[in-house]
Amino acid sequence: MPKLDENLPVMEPETNLPEPPADDTAPAEELESDAAPIAVADTPDTTTDQSADSENAAATLVRNRYADTMNKRRRRLPKPVRVILGLAIIAGLVGGAVYVVRKTQQTTETETIQTAVASRGYLETYIEGSGYTAAKTRAELGKDIKGKVLKVNVATGDTVKAGQVLLTIDPTDTRKELEEAQTALNEAQKSVSDANKTLSELTVTAPFTGRLLPPGELTGTTTSTNADGETVTTSSTPEEVKIQKGEDVASGTVLGTLVDDTNMRLELYYSYAYIDKLKVGQSATVSIPQTMGTVTGTVDKIDRIEKISDEGGRLFRATVTFRNPGTLKAGMDATATIAADGLNIAPTGSGKLAYSREVQLTTKAAGTATANCAPSYQKFSAGQTILSLSSPDATNALQTAQQLVKSRQETVAELTQRINQCTVVSPIDGVVMSMSAVEGENLLGDAAPCVVADTDNIVINADISMSDVASVQPGQIASITMNLGTDTLSFTGTVQSVGLEANKSDNNSQGSMPTFPAVIAVDPVEGQTLRPDFSVEYRITTAQSPDCIMVPSSAVVNTMDGVAVFAQPAEGQTFENAQPIPEGADVPEGFVLLPVEIGIADAENTEIISGLEEGTTVFLAGPQDLYSDMETSGGAVMVG
Q1: Confidence check: pLDDT of 510 > 90
Q2: How many CA atoms lie within 13 A of 623 on its CB side?
Q3: Please, which residues have CB within 8 angstroms of residue 477's CB and are 6 or more apart in sequence?
Q4: Which residues pair with 359 in a beta bridge?
Q5: What is the distance between the alpha carbons of residues 45 and 22, in angstroms, rounded to a whole number?
Q6: Are 137 and 430 in contact (CB under 8 A)?
Q7: For the chain, percent of residues with pLDDT exceeding 70
Q8: pLDDT at 577 > cutoff 80
Q9: At 399, is the secondary structure helix, strand, or coil?
Q10: Residue 471 burial by CB count (10 A; 0-12/13-18/19+): exposed, middle or buried?
């Protein structure tokens, strides 16, 4: 309804309404009939004066653009109808006047209660929801155990102690499963060993300190592997093996011979006539015709063998070792004279120089070279890498075998635990919540036959909505109510934990807001024993200010610089940090815009942390948002 002008005078019904001007074309009796419906009281007869007055009225009235329509002769309504219409018009005018008066009074009354005083008091915020009781400690016993129930010692509702035997199950079937699982584990462990060996063989290292000679250097032959995997030996001159990075190398590839050429050895045969005269450690003079030189050696070994010479003599073997001066190599002819008991005992013939140690190096696994192979004649220390190969197949085989071992180890451990658990004992002090096992029946391992719970320690399992979970933290106080039908039990608790992941079941409900699990530890209830699985209602206090300055939330507004209130300075008081009031704001005179810092807020009041003193008058029902382009809708908000 449009707002009426407050200066408009209140209309009162008139008892003498003026008669409409006479129509020059209408007879006198018709004029009398036209005036009758509007009259509400006796009216003096003025018919005889209307003819004269009408001429004067014609000269003073201003014709309007609706005159032709308004002055058109109309069909006269019956007199009773005209009377009723007149009364309705008068009643409408009176009702409108009353509405204007009442509306004016309401506006005045509203304006008188649009202020409040900043006061000190207690303020808190909280969230509410529902949950159910549960035992803090609960154990499902006998689950997954297969076998015949031999003995049941307790029944549902019995109080038990930790370590008490509850029932006994025959573990024969589980033992058979354990034997099979152990066999499978042994096979998997062998696969890991084989895979590790294969991986280790991809790297060829020096077994001792020495020099790498190319294949055929010592024997004049070359050994290789043909397409059928057979080893083939051919005579050839030594040729250095050159394997480049990225090259595929077959298993059995000969890389060369590693020799310890710092020390040389010489095997010679002597007549059995001197068998008791030659001793290990005796000095020997070694002659090398090719170098026309001699070196001093030592008898390192005597082999009491019998070799028959071409002349029919009996011979034994002695080995002489000496330090290589750096100019000798295997295959050179040499002899050695041994000084014993004043004699220089000579061998029956010459022998061939050999290195003190030598070993042929071959690849034992196929792979791809990760670097160039070391060159021939290079010196290597013991353990130094000569060739390194890679093989994805070998790596994958090891990983697969390791995973299989882990899985089978878990199976063995689980079955072992089941056997140990065939004598079912209570892990806690508590109450037997259920006992479904019956002596003589066979358990299939698909359910727990016994459940024990500690009913002295009850918690509340609560579901916190996604919109509230950010404000809930461990340590917050909770008040809890439980409806017992004829009575309501109230008690308190403390938030113990809040889940970081939403309940999985929430994902199955399309359109529902996810909830997060929380646990509320219940304080002891004197004279009451709580049981699990009872529905409760909780109220968690998320924040509180026991002694704070607060104002009604409708007094808080948003500005471009933050939140503020319209405050009224006391007599002689000024606010140094007052801000300009935006143009067009409907604020009573005497109020200024004062920035404030707010804290928590409930449904009615908002905490003022700073910027406003206790006892200051503030304006209520003001503009909640002084700037329409701000995203917030105004009003009290929670910061910090």
Answers
A1: no
A2: 16
A3: 492, 493, 494, 495, 540, 541
A4: 258
A5: 14
A6: yes
A7: 75
A8: yes
A9: helix
A10: middle
Q: Which residues pair with 463 in a beta bridge?
A: 517
- In 3-state terms the chain splits into helix, strand, coil percentages (rounded to 5) of 20, 40, 40
Q: Strand ranges (DSSP E) for 163-249? A: 165-169, 203-205, 210-213, 221-225, 231-235, 248-249
How far apart are alpha carbons 460 and 489 in whole angstroms?
14
> 163 vs 218, 413, 416, 548, CA distance in Å?
76, 22, 19, 54
616: tokens are 């200051």
pLDDT at 63: 32
User: pLDDT per residue over 201-244, tens digit each?
Assistant: 999 999 999 999 998 887 645 555 666 666 665 555 677 888 99
Tens-place pLDDT, residues 339-370? 988 889 999 999 999 999 999 999 999 999 99
Sign of CA dihedral 398, 403, 404, 410: positive
Residue 79 is classified by DSSP as: H
Give, as one character, the DSSP assignment of residue 274: G
Residues paired with 489 in a beta bridge: 482
Which residue do the tokens 């060993």 mark? 193
Give the Cβ contact number of residue 559 at 10 Å.
18
| Identity at 483, one-letter amino acid code | N
Choose the weakest-confidence range: 4-13, 121-130, 500-509.
4-13
Q: 476 or 56: whose pLDDT is higher?
A: 476
What is residue 223's three-state secondary structure?
Answer: strand
| CB 128 within 8 Å of CB 623 | no
Which tokens hold the place of 448?
A: 């727990």
Nearest CA to 318 among 376, 373, 377, 276? 276
Mean residue pLDDT across the chain: 80
Given a contact cutoff of 8 angstroms between Cβ atoms, the answer to whether 202 and 390 are in contact is yes
Which pLDDT score, from 0 to 100, does residue 68 have? 36
The reported pLDDT for the residue numbered 93 is 61
Distance CA 169, CA 423 (A): 6
Angstrom CA distances, 442 to 153, 292, 418, stand at 17, 94, 15
Please name the residue that has the structure tokens 């000269």.
59
Residue in the block written with tokens 């719970």: 453
Tell me the average pLDDT across 335-342. Answer: 92
Distance, first Cα to last Cα, the chain: 45
Residue 536: strand pairing partners: 131
Token code pair at residue 406: 């882990």
The model's confidence at residue 381, banded by pLDDT at 50, 70 and 90, is very high
List, in order, residues 6 or more apart from 513 with CB less than 8 Å away: 465, 466, 467, 506
